[in-house]
Design goal:
Elements: H1 2-28, H2 35-55
Helix pairs in contact: 1-2
Amino acid sequence: MYQKAKLEIIEDNIEKGLQIIKKIFQHSYPIQDTRGLYKLYERVSLNRNMAKKTKG
């Protein structure tokens, strides 16, 4: 139970962090220059999906 709650907190923090990063990138670079950001987003999404699979 504790592990599950901890994981959900981490996931929320990742989401918030990604939203902040997206805002920063949107203001400082044109969209086509954010490929690295999308790669990061994909990697984080993948990690979250892996975490969900191993959770139960």
